[in-house]
Amino acid sequence: MATSAVTEQQVDTTTGVTTTDETTTDELGRELDRIRSEVVEARGAPDARYIHTVLVAQRSLEAGGRLALTVSLLPPAWLAGTAMLAVAKTLENMELGHNILHGQWDWMGDPAIHSTTWEWDFATPADAWKRTHNHLHHTYTNVVGRDRDLGYTILRMSPDQPWHPVHLLQPLYAALLAPVFEWGIALYDLEADAVPSGRKSVRSFLGDLAGLARKAAGQFAKDYVLFPLLAGPSAVPCLLGNLTANALRNVWAHTIIFCGHFPGDVRTFTEDEIEGETRGEWYLRQIQGSANIEGGRLLHLLSGNLSHQIEHHVFPDLPSNRYAEIAPRLREICDRHGLPYVTGPLARQYASMWGRVLRHTLP
């Protein structure tokens, strides 16, 4: 790794944004490309063992939770079953589904853990998620007018986004979104807002709507019909346990994702700023447009290692278990180049995120 670089920084006195010169961004690109190459070459049996261990743990927790909820007339069984199922759904959504769909484990050649075959326990069909998340969000991270994940088309998270009176209510609907997050994302991934402008055809929209209807029907039938019926006398508490587990998973996913993208120190960008963007400049935007959450190994696991959101945005298709070892190296590079590296405990990032939501309710 290079130990020095020519760094010229400028601070815009009106925005407080730190910018870097071409020499710095080129050096940044080379250093991060080098890290990427090293990790790609080092992938092997320990990484495969890690993801298979998580998969076995997730399936065991789900089986245990489902079994406990079949006798959930007994309160201890309901609590145990609901807790196990909530953790299983969190692991499936965050560490398995999200990361597998990014292609992080495609290098293993295992058809059971591959981005082209995985269908997750989430309302959004995998193909729709890969289009809006993997392509649009990760390509145009925090670019106003290009990254639809910047507020998910309903929240105003940047002064560059136009203000409308409905934004006065955004603290309310941001909070209400949390327990039903998977359904909000499913509707968002339909890209209905792109139809009136002609960016998406009516035919394509109707096709996606049919796909969502099929996926949603399967999810609903599994959790709220099939397993409650199998529980017999425990049908109602089983249904409530499934509902609670889904809500807990949704609130957690909402918390991690919002804390990784919307704390107050995370930058947004205009379309003019990315015109002719180099690879080094793309890396720089990913660093400035993301935030990490500090915590222990359990937090990192349950967040799908999206607590290392900066590392994920810089290297979205590298195995998630590698982010913890990449993080100190990336932070050292940022420190050496005088670049911001937004990180903090969960409580601080959560408060900062809500500060941003509140701040942009007003014009």
TrEMBL record:
Residues 1-22 have a biased composition (Low complexity). Residues 1-28 are annotated as: Disordered. It comes from the Bacteria. Pfam families: FA_desaturase. Residues 77-343 form the Fatty acid desaturase domain. PANTHER family: DELTA(5) FATTY ACID DESATURASE C-RELATED, FATTY ACID DESATURASE 2. This is Acyl-CoA desaturase. It comes from Streptomyces gilvifuscus.
